[in-house]
Amino acid sequence: MYEINTHRHEPKNFFAGDFPTLTETGIAGAALEECMPVAKNADGKIIPVTAPAEGAALDVVGITAAAAEAEEPAVYYMTGEFFAEALVLPDGVEMEALKDAFRKISIFLR
Hints:
It is built from one helix and six strands, in the order βββββαβ. It is mainly β. Strands 1, 2, 3, 4, 5 and 6 form a six-stranded mixed β-sheet that branches. Strand 5 (73-82), helix 1 and strand 6 (107-109) form a beta-alpha-beta unit.
């Protein structure tokens, strides 16, 4: 007859400090998850960061503020202080490479 649904919410600490955050919007070039490092493709659309070629620098523009499907508006943080363990890393992307790339754009990981 009736079922009892149970929901579970596990909050995730994302912001790690008081460093000012600045957001920007763009169009998603692929499906994006919340808290995912992102870059821009040749068309200027926001895509998940990919592992760089050997010896190349990791190209990042920020971290997504919310999930977005392809061709939808995407909001991402361009500056701020965040907990590293809260990030959703794409396959092949190393946290250590992200830290150096993020520092250059005033994103700091703890």
